Known about the structure:
Strand content: 5-15%
Order of helices and strands: EEEHEEHHHHHH
CATH architecture of the largest domain: Orthogonal Bundle
CATH class of the largest domain: Mainly Alpha
Number of domains: 2
Radius of gyration: 20 Å
Strand order of the largest sheet: 1-2-3
CATH topology of the largest domain: Topoisomerase I, Chain A, domain 4
Amino acid sequence: MTVKGSHLLFRFRGKSGREHEVGLTDQRIAKIVSNLQDLPGQNLFQYMNGAGEARDITSQDVNDYLRQISGDDFTAKDFRTWAGTLLTAIGLSVQPNFESKKQAKANIKNAVSAAAEVLGNTPAICQKCYVHPAVIEAYLNRTPIAGLTSARKSTGRWDLRAAEKTVLKFLRTQHRQDRNGR
C-alpha cells in the first residue's frame, strides 16, 4: 500500500495467489488510509477494540457489517456478482452480431474475460460464479437487454447508473417470467 497525497496504490495477493495492483485517487480516502497505516501491526485494515488492541478486519467482519446495514443476507460476493453480471452485460452489448455458435462463444469469452480482468478472476470462475446466467442466455437467444446500449454516452464511456438500472430491470423481468413459468 502506497499513499502519496490523494493517490493510493493497493498491492495485494488475491485468490489463487494472483497479484493485484489497484490505483485510486481520492483525498478523503487517502487521509483515512494514511491514518490506518499508523495503527500497530502489519495489516492495513484494522480497528481498535474497546480494550485499545488492534484487531484485523476479516471477511466475516465485512459480511457481518453488510448484513447489519442492509438488514438482509448480503455479502461481499453479492457485490462481486453484481459487478461481474453488469460488466459482462455491457461487454456483450458491444460485441458484433454472431453468425455461428463458435462466434457466439468467442464473443461471450471476450465479454467475460473483460469482466474477469476487472474482478481479478479467471474467465472460467467469473462466468461460473459471478455472472448471472440470464445475461449469457439472452445473448445466445439474440435477445438484447432493452435500453442497455442507450446507457453508452456519445464519448464511448458508459453511464453506469443507467446501465445498472437497465440490467436490474432485465433481471427482475427474467425472475418474474421464471416464477410464472414463462
